[in-house]
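Quick one, tokens below. Sequence please?
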């Protein structure tokens, strides 16, 4: 084990991973201190703008089987973890619906082929359900007449990202975590303190200490659309504008997201906004009268292989990063792997799920450590 029983843990970054792991460490009896460069509303976190879809099979079209396994594991863990919070968080598992316009059938066939090969590679995934027009209308009446076929991925889920971040914050406060806002830090700042163990969960904020970590920009629109009712996240297959529409409580919808290889965090472009909104309008005309609540941009912290990783960065420090576009989908798996490794020295779950752990201590780069 790396963290001694009852040892104080300092977590850098109170975004998604920092809050999730901080709470589990507190419950395991560790005094926990969190530092975040931004404020308690997670304004600096990718987690604040995310759609928070939990869709391992849908994502398998663009990710590795190990991430699908982590996502499958996490779908079962979320209800337990949310059940431990005193504030309820919106969570549902009504599946993911995939639709396409007639002219894009070839793209849909290719997508279905990718999902079917994932089902062969990862046993235990739910069956993919092809829907005809009648079945589609039964599953999602709002889309009847507009689409004539679709695919349902049963059991996939979503949750309310901001509700979760807030509920975790309340829990951390109630359990006695020490919280420091507007407090940007580096692991090197704590090297002198031999009593504490440092966990770096700074997402993009760790870039100077993790060469290879890159940003993948995403833009999302938050809409209030009282005329639209969708029971589940819906993805539109499209050769140029593939989008998802994730329904949140009270007719709020998150429409996203662009994927741009860039660390530019400036506001959304006109082109991206037009594409996202036009595509949403082709899914449901009720979006024409929707109100634009927010237009957000954030960067997804991504490693060269697009996979998450835990690594030692000093004798008493580790880094957890690279959650890319799957933080909500996999964070319960990463949290359990981290707890097993750090507090019990147990790497069995990491091996089972295929989570990369680097146990050798990286030699610090003096030029970047203090940057
Ligand atoms: C547009 C978009 C859509 C997404 N949709 C989904 C989705 O549908 N499903 C899904 O599973 N995932 C989704 N994600 C991905 C998910 O949001 C991320 O994978 C996840 O937030 C990463 O968690 P993290 O804790 O590593 O980083 P973050 O959530 O970014 O948190 C990092 C924290 O570190 C803090 N910090 C930075 N520098 C410092 C410093 N020097 N000192 C102290 N603190 C610092 C930041 O302020 C921040 O609070 C989406 C992301 C984006 C951008």
């Amino acid at each position: 084990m790396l963290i001694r029983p009852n040892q104080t843990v300092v977590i850098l970054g109170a975004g998604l991973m920092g809050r999730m792991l901080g709470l589990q460490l507190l419950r395991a009896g560790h005094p926990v201190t969190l530092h975040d460069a931004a404020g308690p509303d997670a304004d600096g976190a990718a987690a604040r703008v995310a759609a928070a879809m939990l869709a391992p099979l849908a994502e398998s079209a663009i990710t590795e089987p190990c991430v699908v396994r982590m996502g499958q594991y996490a779908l079962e863990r979320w209800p337990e973890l949310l059940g431990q919070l005193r504030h309820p968080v919106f969570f549902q598992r009504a599946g993911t619906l995939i639709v396409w316009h007639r002219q894009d059938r070839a793209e849909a066939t290719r997508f279905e082929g990718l999902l079917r090969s994932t089902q062969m590679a990862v046993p235990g995934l739910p069956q993919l359900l092809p829907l005809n027009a009648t079945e589609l209308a039964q599953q999602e009446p709002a889309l009847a007449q507009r689409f004539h076929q679709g695919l349902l991925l049963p059991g996939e889920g979503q949750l309310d990202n901001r509700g979760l971040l807030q509920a975790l914050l309340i829990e951390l406060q109630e359990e006695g975590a020490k919280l420091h806002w507007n407090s940007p830090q580096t692991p090197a700042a704590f090297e002198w303190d031999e009593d504490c163990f440092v966990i770096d969960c700074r997402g993009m904020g760790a870039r100077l200490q993790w060469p290879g970590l890159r940003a993948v920009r995403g833009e999302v629109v938050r809409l209030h659309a009282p005329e639209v009712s969708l029971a589940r996240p819906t993805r539109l297959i499209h050769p140029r504008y593939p989008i998802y529409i994730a329904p949140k409580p009270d007719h709020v919808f998150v429409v996203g997201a662009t994927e741009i290889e860039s660390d530019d965090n400036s506001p959304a472009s006109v082109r991206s906004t037009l594409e996202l909104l036009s595509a949403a309008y082709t899914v449901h005309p009720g979006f024409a009268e929707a109100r634009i609540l927010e237009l957000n941009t954030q960067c997804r912290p991504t490693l060269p292989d697009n996979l998450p990783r835990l690594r030692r960065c000093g004798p008493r420090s580790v880094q957890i990063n690279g959650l890319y576009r799957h933080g909500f989908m996999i964070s319960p798996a990463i949290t359990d792997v981290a707890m097993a490794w750090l507090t019990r020295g147990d790497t069995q779950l990491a091996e089972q799920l295929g989570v990369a752990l680097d146990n050798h201590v990286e030699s610090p780069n003096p030029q970047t450590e203090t940057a």
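Residues 366-371 have pLDDT under 50 and may be disordered. Residues 65-83 form the longest helix (19 residues).
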